Amino acid sequence: MVTAVIVGAGHRALTYASYSKAQPDKLKIVGVADPIALRREQVAAQYGLSPAQCFESASALAAKGKIADAVINGTMDRDHVSTTLPLLDAGYDVLLEKPFAVTEAEVHTLDTAVKRTGRKVMICHVLRYAPFYTALKQRVLAGEIGDIINIQTAEHVSYHHVVIGYVRGKWHRKDLCGSSMLMAKCCHDLDLISWFKSGIAPKRVASFGGLHYFKRDHAPVNSGEHCLLDCPIENDCLYSARKHYLDHPQRWSFYVWAGLEHIQNPTLADKEASLKEKSNPYGRCVWKLDNNVVDRQSVLIEFADGSTATHNMVGGCSKGERKIHIVGTRGELHGSIDEEKYRIRRIDPRPGHECDEVEHSLRHEGDTTGAFGGHGGGDLRLVADFVAALEGRQPSISCTVLADSVNGHLIGFCADRAMEQNTIVEF
Q1: So what's the pLDDT on residue 17?
Q2: Which residues, 6+ apart, have CB-to-CB distance to 159 below 8 Å?
């Protein structure tokens, strides 16, 4: 059995830790470190921890010495490297939430520390573990479409998702959370591109985008500052806090109701009252906040072998969706993880033919997502692979050790720089 300590008891770390409930003979939670006392108490109650197993910080945990095999680090983006370094020195292996760094310098700092300590650091690029992307990787590895010429990925971020996270939420300002929207939301996609091009280094990057819609210039006429306090058009607004959070109280509950953690079972009246507090950003007009991250961005990448890739992120779509199209010298793979199906096309020059096309659906194989959590079923498959690696077993083809995650992060940092400076960035 692998033992682990939760560091940063937020939504993502608790999701990964839940693997211990599904597989209690594989993983056991034996500690928690979080600056918020209430969260320490909640985790302690959930996992039967004593006060001696609860810590106020990662540094306090590290100072105690090694009390477990590993750490599940779910701190905020700008804290990932600073909290991980003392834990590596204390002897812990680490399952680290993405993005694992917020600057290129942090990438190299962590990489150096991993090499120096010899510890394992696995990055939570959970989409690699989704059956959809795993199936595509297997076909690429089998040579079914030949050598990759081009990869096209797209993420359509739904209107309610972009607002909860990147307009009203934790990632609405790069200077506060440490990450751009591209890195906070799409480092999954950039990692997938790098994973499919494994072993081939990126050569140069260009990028275009910006904050275009969610700003004061686009606020509806006569709109107020606070949805439930002073907005005469709230009833007709697509981004009304009432429509997003009171009519859908469970949709983003782990974010929007975090301020009610001290209430065991908050009522709808409690939730409405919280949205009416002027200090609560979730009750504010989406066009009148201080958000400064992009709401759309396009990235173009050239690799050392001459192949290219693009990623398009569009925030505010009516429905969230991730799509991919991989073009090879012998065929193509394309599909949508949200539809849980993909097509493989192969060149077919026979008379009367142009190509051979076969559709593959993952749904007929049973539940590919629910039993293994979110992100297309990748969440807990990632944790299972982390446990396997710590037990000395062969990791899967999706394994996300730090060295494999570096290129995706560097692409993101270079893309942001290219966009901000209106230039092409060379690696």
Answers
A1: 97
A2: 238, 239, 316, 317, 318
Q: pLDDT-derived band of residue 251, with 50, 70 and 90 as boundaries?
A: very high
Please enumerate, as own/partner, the contacts of 269-275 that have beta carbons within 8 Å and a separation of 24 or more: 271/245, 271/246, 272/228, 272/242, 272/246, 275/227, 275/228, 275/241, 275/242, 275/245, 275/246
419 and 313 in a single domain? The answer is yes
What kind and span of H or E run contains 194?
Answer: helix 181-196
Q: Measuring CA to CA, which residue among 76, 237, 75 is closest to residue 160?
A: 237
Q: What is the pTM of this model?
A: 0.92
**CATH label of the domain that carries residue 36:** 3.40.50.720
Same-domain check for residues 318 and 378:
yes
- 317 in the same domain as 203: yes
Q: Can you give the CATH number for the domain in which 185 is found?
A: 3.30.360.10
Q: How many domains does the chain have?
A: 3
Give the Cα-Cα-Cα angle 331, 404, 105 (nearest 5 degrees): 130
* Region 248-255 average pLDDT: 93
Greatest C-alpha distance within the chain: 75
User: Do residues 271 and 301 both lie within one domain?
Assistant: no
Residues 310 and 170 in one domain: yes
| C-alpha to C-alpha distance for 125 and 141, rounded to whole angstroms | 19
Phi and psi, residue 158, nearest 5°: -60, 160
Distance CA 182, CA 162 (A): 12
What are the pLDDT digits (tens) for 16-63? 999 999 999 999 999 999 999 999 999 999 999 999 999 999 999 999
User: Which of 251, 240, 232, 235 minimizes the C-alpha distance to 275?
Assistant: 240
- Rounded to an integer, the average pLDDT of 305-325 is 97
Residues 350 and 422 in one domain: yes
172 assigned to some structural domain: yes
DSSP, res 210? E
The answer to whether the CB of 151 falls within 8 A of the CB of 302 is: no
User: What ranges make up the beta strands (E) of 8-104?
Assistant: 27-33, 54-55, 70-73, 93-96
pLDDT per position as a tens digit, 365-398: 444 444 445 667 889 999 999 999 999 998 899 9
Of the residues 79, 97, 115, which one is the last residue of a structural domain? 97
Are the C-beta atoms of residues 319 and 132 closer than 8 Å to each other? no
